[in-house]
């Protein structure tokens, strides 16, 4: 084979440098040079067609002003619209065969036409990509990964047809779940859990008028004027996503239901196991329990709840990928972090609404991470075209990342402990195709009839994305905040032109749940997200009963004038972090509580008025 770095560069006259960080990613150490004779299965993830039109396609079915509102696409139409073009496939094939001298029999195109597979030795791959491959070792568990942290090169005319080459610069994290209880040295995946657990001695003494000290299901119904009897049955669907060792016990559900929803005793969610996920094994009980009890408690026995249980057996180190691949088989081909790919590909059912109360990465510009999170967000957008609604918690770290308070220092590094530095958002909440939910509380001595405040038990996450620009449907609301209420921070503290979040809010403290055989007060934006997911599910119930489609991607509608009366405005509170007071809640949208908490009758009426 003719593998010549000189030939590769001369053939295109200019090489395009791809993803070239200068240091080994934090958490990993360079162990040794990779064996030059070892076989390296390469994946070239091809650029999708029509991605530049994704927003236009989505707005056509999600903008209340569109005549096609609610006319969601079929999965087949989505797959056909975005599959790589013949031009892209031919360009990559021509480069490999005619310039790099690869035998055509070694080149394999995936069934969906999304990815080129190629097995080369390490030496051949290094020559082809202008890279140096090493074996890296992870500091926490000693696992090893092959990659090239110093980057790789592609000819300029070819690079526009290739999104990623795997394995290369992205090493990921081998620890699937990083909880926020304590300070971590490496920002990564975790469950939002900023609120403590406080035992409740006598749950029978709790009443709706004491919602400032103990927020029950009845409190939530009162706060959001939620009084809805579900009628669409199994035509509607909703799921919560739980990862790794976050599990629940049916006995805790029954303890909760005996007090707050007697007709639900004996009911459990329908498990949809992904990557070996099993909610019956030993694990942490609090977080999954919180989601399930809140959604089932609000919706009642008329709606089944699905549980996407994503296991640690997932081969991917990009944690949202197992879920995305499980409901969209074509995404499995796009995913390439591991050589083995994903274990569940398009074999799991989709739902109308999915609630995700986890964070996966800080929203920071990083050549090893940014292309991946862009691709994940794009996949969420494509699934939204089919009518899915993605809801995520906004985080419990205020303007910092996670409860550990990661901020970005002037030299570009991330440091925990809320040091003075640039604000950091979190993913997937900052993806514009996700509805991000912040947290509120009933103010001391107030009732459900009074306006809530931004929770003070922990700083509700919110801010501006570094990876995603501000969408047009947010312009008026965000500009109003920045012009009239925005803090006077230096230009480099946050990205004023980025996608702003959260979009809405719901109560996040002190929610009463049953856990480990007793009642406790718990919370976090991890509670706010499933509460809002239940509200949207009830909206879908009414629309389906009226012969209409589920709402799908709701963000453009939420920010439109047709929904001006659909929220309880929250104007008090802040979300401190990074050695600042963060942002202030204010009239209208703000980066603490979004547009406000739901006023269910008004929200329902606004959605029912749409086609």
UniProtKB/TrEMBL annotation:
A biological process term (GO) from this entry: proteolysis
InterPro entries listed in its UniProt record: Peptidase_S8/S53_dom_sf, S53_propep, Sedolisin_dom, Tripeptidyl-peptidase_I
Predominant location category: secreted
Cofactor: Ca(2+)
Keyword Metal-binding: yes
Keyword Phosphoprotein: no
Cross-referenced Gene3D superfamilies: Peptidase S8/S53 domain
PROSITE patterns linked: PROKAR_LIPOPROTEIN, SEDOLISIN
Binding-site residues for Ca(2+), renumbered to this chain: 569-570, 588, 590
Pfam families linked to this entry: Pro-kuma_activ (PF09286)
Domain Peptidase S53: 214-610
Signal peptide feature range: 1-19
Entries under CDD domains matching the protein: Peptidases_S53, Pro-peptidase_S53
Keywords attached to this entry: Calcium, Hydrolase, Metal-binding, Protease, Serine protease, Signal, Zymogen
SUPFAM superfamilies linked: Protease propeptides/inhibitors, Subtilisin-like
Subcellular location(s) per record: Secreted, Extracellular space
GO MF term set: metal ion binding; serine-type endopeptidase activity; tripeptidyl-peptidase activity
Any Gene Ontology CC annotation: extracellular region
Protein name: Subtilisin-like protein
Organism: Polyporus arcularius HHB13444
